[in-house]
Structure formats: C-alpha cells, structure tokens
Amino acid sequence: MLKTEAIDVQKLRADFPILKRKVHGKRLVYLDSAATAQKPQAVIDALVDYYSRYNSNVHRSVHTLGEEATEAYEEARAKAARFVGSSPKGLVFVRGTTEATNLVKFAWGEKNVKKGDVLVTTLMEHHSNIVPWQLLAKEKGATLKFAGLLPDGTIDMADFEKLLKESPRLVAFAHCSNVLGTINDVHAMCAKARASGATTLVDGAQSVPHMPVDVGAIGADFYAYSGHKMLGPTGIGALVAKKELLEDMDPFQGGGEMIREVFLDHATWNDVPYKFEAGTVNIADAIGLGAAIDYLNAIGMEKVREHEVRLLKYALETLSKAKGFHSYGPSDPQKRGGVVSFNLGDVHPHDLATILDEEGIAIRSGHHCAQPLMRWLNVAATSRASFHVYNSYDDVDALKAGLDKAGSIFRL
Amino acid sequence: MSSADIYRELILDYYRSPRNFGKLEKFDIDAHDTNPLCGDDIGMQIRVGVGRSIEEIKFSGKGCAISQASASMLTELAKGKPLEWVKQLSKEDIFKMLGDPDLGPSRVKCALLGMKVLKMGVYGYLGAHYEDPDDTP
User: Is B102 among the domain residues?
Assistant: First the structure.
C-alpha cells in the first residue's frame, strides 16, 4: 500500500528530544502514546521559561511576576477551552481525566444522586470512568449499570437504550476506547441520554489528543481530558462543563483560591471555575498544556487524525501478517482511534513487551486499567501499540519485525 | 543477556507444560497472591507430611512465562523439603533456579511471585507473618 504521510513526520521528529535517545542501542520506537505522549521542545521550553523567568503564584500577587503568571495561566485556560469548542468560564483545570471524574463524583454526584437512582456506564470504560461511580453508588444506595458491547467492540446501542428507559441520573462513557480504539457515536449517545433526563459525562482522554473535538456540538454536560496524552505535561487536564451547571454544583476541595469570603462558621464560594481550583494551582503545567495545544493547532487536528487513520490502516494490514497475531476492536480504521490492542499466540503481553523492549520498541502490556473489558474479551491482558504525530510507517515495520522475533523465540 | 536467553527452552517448556499445576484435594496450606501491575496470579496448595515437610505441592494461576515457569520450577524444588527450608529461601535462589536471567525491576516481580506466595502460605502455617521485603509503597 502507498505510504504517504498526512504530516511531515521526519521533520517533526526533530521537535521531540526524547526520540534522539537509544534504547538497548536501538532507535527508540515509541508506541505507547495512549499511556502518555512524548513532549515537543516547545512544551519543555514553556515549563523552563515559566520557572526561570516569571515563576509566581496566580490570582494573588500584584507584582509584575504575579501578573505575568496569572496572564499566562488564564491564557492557557482559554486555549484549553477553545481547543474543544468551550469557553474559559466552563473549564476547570484538574490533574487529569481521573481527577475530573472524581470532581464530578464529589461536587455533582453527592448533591444530585439519591437512593434508588440508576447510573449508567459501559463495559469498555477505563477504571477512572467506573470506580468513582461505584463509590458514588455505594454511598448513595444507587445502582451502577453497564451497557454491553457487540462482538466488533462497539457499544450495543439496543442495550444502551434499554438502560436509558430506567431514567438514569448519570450516563458516563468514553469518546474513544483506550483498548479497542472504538470511537463512540457520542453525539447520538448524549442526545439519547439527555432525552432520558440524564446528565452526561464523556471521557475524552483518548479523543482530544487525536482528533478535532467540539464539546458543544457533542452536547455532553461534562467532558474531561488529560494534558499528558496530548504532548503536554503530566499533572494537568481539564473538566469542561456549562457555566450554569458548574455554578449549581458544590465545591470539590476547600481551601485557598476557591473562596470569596471566609467567616468562622461558614464561607462563600468564588466564581466558577475558580470555585473548583482550591490551593495553589498547577501553573507551570497549565502553561505547558497551552504550548502543547499551540503545537497541535499548528499541525491541525484534522491532519493529526488523517495521519493516524493512515497509520492504523497500515498497521492492521502489516501486523496481521505476523504469526499468531490477533487484534481486538472495530476493523474499519475510520471508526477507531490510533490504538491496536492485540495478542500474539500464547505469548503473554509482558513477555512480548520484554522482547520488544530489547529492540527499542515501547508498547503497553497488561489490562490497560480496563479489567471489566479484559473479562469481556476473555483475556488476562493484551499488548497495545498506540500512535501519535511522531509515529510513522517505519515504526510499524519495526514492530512487525519485533513480533516476528518474538514468534520465533516462542516457536509459534 | 538477550531475550532469546531469558526465554530459553527451559522457561518455555515450563510455561507450556507446567509441572505440579492444579489443585490438591486435601491440603494444609492454601495461599494466593496477584501482581496488581500486570495481573499475574499464583495460588499454591501444600499438604504437610511427617517432620513438617512439604509432602505434596501444587500451584495454579495465570500470567507471563516467567511467573508461571518460576512457580512451577519452585514447586519441584520445594517438594519433600521441610517447611523451615522455605524460610531460608532467597530471591537469589530463585534467580539461580531460572538460570540467572537479566530481568528488569518490573519483571523481577514476575519471577518472585511464586516464592512470595509459597512464603506467605508457609509462614502463615507456622504462625508467622511474611512481609515481602521488595514490596514498594
């Protein structure tokens, strides 16, 4: 097949200093971006620039450094909001998607979920979109129900709609599965869930880094994403919601920054989104996220997506020729994100990852924080190769050679 | 050492045809543990014989070649030994048993899971508590 690139990967690789390093004497073939993506120099520079030139607390200090830091932090918020078609007042900075779902659990769930309520999620979720709802259901005497999957790894919409007939309080699901790669029809799912009276939460951890996302058009009440999977620093992410919904919620953590006035017996809350950002916020990493967004925008998210679709198509064709290769998820590259979860004969994913590591190839192996999905797939673990802008056909070829080597060692 | 050396014939043989795999009908010791990082899962059952020795031992579970082969080889090594022998067992003994493969820190846990379960079970039977010195916070 024709190996044409939607973006100039060879040129772009020079922006990622880590790609210069060797692993076991081999070129680093990084295929674990769904776990965390590598960072371009522009992001690293933004962090260094903040700490070396204008490090200061935000929203407090009236000196020059404080004002510069506040401006940069709020500019990062505006970028993070615009990137997903939202407004800055509706964007709360959090540590990542996990903190976002937990924030919703505490600040929205504790107030709005009652005994006997039904909460709905799906079988393909990451633990971060299951465990908070389990805890909430247990505390409140509510029931958590799971929409099933079809054999091709897509959500069983008939089952999903059946669960909506129970008038759930909350319906939470991933935009894109971190294991199967399945891109869910979130527009339709949100519309249906809202029609049933539910509040919706979409986990965008695997979608925002890889494709254009417009939260307003999707119609989600809550939408969460992580910075570190989209070339940004660790420890920063976003919870996006309508301003009115955030205003109606209780605080998440109490402390500095989130208050308006504090008395001995009570306190009043700051405006949103600050009401949810207690304590000194993660200033540097928010600014770093802003730099990552600039970098992705300069490439263009349409192109990022097109690049990954081509790579995915090539990967599914090439890797399927490896002896014992079996992949999971939808077969149509247009319907999935740039992740390939697979098994190779009876080679355990951890053994495979060790063999590939020796070739300089980094993949993820294990349960991918999705144990209910592993049980549904009837496997203990899978291997997973995942892509980002710096990956190309040569990485897929290296992986194929690595799989052949593993097959030979294990005598498949 | 290359991965071709780690996954020598011996390890693959024990992975594909594990010795002493299964459950005992009658047993005095029954221990089980998992490695939450990778989901490796090992259970061990022991029937204690005369002189407080390991009369019969079987393991069960699922996981990578290293964890399964290591557990299986350990059952062969342990069979017939006094329970006190288990207390002397060290991770160096396990590495030696496996042929001193060059394992990274995360894979070392796979190699040692069988020993951990064996020690948990035997220490418990002897009224002691086994604390894994390699457990990181």
Answer: yes
For the entire predicted model, the pTM comes to 0.94
Average pLDDT over chain A reads 96
- Determine contact, residues B95/B115, Cβ cutoff 8 Å: no
Collect all residues with Cβ–Cβ distance below 8 Å to B100 and sequence separation of at least 6.
Answer: none
* Geometric angle at alpha carbon A115, from A123 and A147, rounded to 5°: 15
Q: Is residue B79 part of a domain?
A: yes
pLDDT at A294: 98
Taking any CB pair shorter than 8 Å as contact, residues of chain A touching chain B are 346-351, 354-355, 357-358, 365-367, 371, 374, 380-381, 409-411
Tell how strand A143-147 and strand A91-94 pair up: unpaired
Q: How far is B112 from chain A (nearest CA, A)?
A: 15
Q: Is B64 a member of any domain?
A: yes
Contact in structure between A316 and A340 (CB atoms under 8 Å)? yes
* Number of structural domains chain B divides into: 1
Cis peptide before A273 (omega within 30 of 0): yes
Q: Which residues of A are catalytic?
A: 369
Which chain B residues are Cβ-neighbours of A411 within 8 angstroms?
12
Residue B114 pLDDT > 60: yes
Domain span at B120? 3-125
Q: What is the pLDDT of residues A215-232, one digit of tens each?
A: 999 999 999 999 999 999
ipTM of the complex: 0.89
Q: Which residue in A247, A240, A306, A317 sits closest to A275, CA to CA?
A: A247
Q: What is the mean pLDDT of chain B?
A: 91
Question: What average pLDDT score do residues A387-410 get?
Answer: 97
Mean pLDDT of A280-295: 98
